Protein 1
Amino acid sequence: MTRLLFLQVGRETKRVAFPSDALNQEALSKLFRDRFPRLASSNGPLSIQIRDPSVGIFYSLETLSDIRDKAVLRVRVPG
């Protein structure tokens, strides 16, 4: 099964299709780095947040099972 994800860094948003069976923290970090070249130089896992659609706020992604189809994920970058 493939999930549609919306990835945000700053004001830029990218839409991607991602296989559910490949979903893990390392794969998500790689996906962000591939889509947003300015993140390529950062090392280690990224601090990824997910938007709760019922209240419209972002919180730290701790459980990958929270990621549903059409989820909005973001990485905050300083500066």
Note: The chain has a mean pLDDT of 92.
Protein 2
Amino acid sequence: MPAASALARTRSSRPTRVAVPSPWVTGENFTVCDPYLFTLTRWLKADGVDSARFAKVHAHMLLMADRPAVQRALVDEPR
């Protein structure tokens, strides 16, 4: 994960400019891209990167976390 941290530090504004048009990654419809971005965003924390630095990405993570299927999956996820 160190690469994710380095990328986040060097390109701190880019993900917010290009990612998450609204409310989902590809626009108005939920697609396979959304759980993928959610997973990547959750990995940032383990690498010491605060996703709140990227407002749109962080908002997407919170939106995903509100989905009942995501909540069930997180409960079942091994730690």
Note: The chain has a mean pLDDT of 81.
Protein 3
Amino acid sequence: MYYLGIDWGESECGLALADLETRIATGYKQLKKEDLWNEVCLLKGKYELSGIVLGKTGEGNNKDREKFIEEARKLKLPV
């Protein structure tokens, strides 16, 4: 089982997978925000994701981030 870590940026996001058994997180991929949701769905099918750890952005508009959280919860992934 894994946690997915997301470093939320203005136009891109960095992803990391954390193995719950070994307690080690490893960088996975950096991608554009518009590709994020498809990647999360692929990872959910490939790994047993237990949840998402979502980094908080600094200043600015967080509408995209809030929308992402709503969608992730629909997949029963705690954020």
Note: The CA atoms of residues 48 and 57 lie 26 Å apart.
